[in-house]
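Hi everyone, sorry if this is the wrong subforum. Our group has a chain we'd like a structural model of before ordering constructs, and none of us has done structure prediction before. Sequence below.
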Amino acid sequence: MSSLPTALQSCDMLLIDGLHAFDFTFDDAGLVIECMDGRLLKRWHFDLRQLAAAVATGDEWVLGAEDGEHRLICMSALRASEDEDDE
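Answer:
Right subforum, don't worry. Here is the predicted structure as tokens:
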């Protein structure tokens, strides 16, 4: 199985603790995720050490952080085809 950093390079949507997140950045500083939960903006930051220590359970990754464990799933967003069928 690949590592979480490898999986993050090819995904464009995340599911973290049951919330869909499209706004995330993965770079040399780690992973930063932001998403709205109702009217509340939630933010998570994981450094490279935390990402490397993530444990895979099926398609889900368990990440340890100062505030506890978080569950993360890497996903690909569905995209509409640019080709239009005139039939």
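For your construct planning: Residues 4-75 form a domain with the PH-domain like fold (CATH 2.30.29.190). The chain is about 15% helix and 50% strand.
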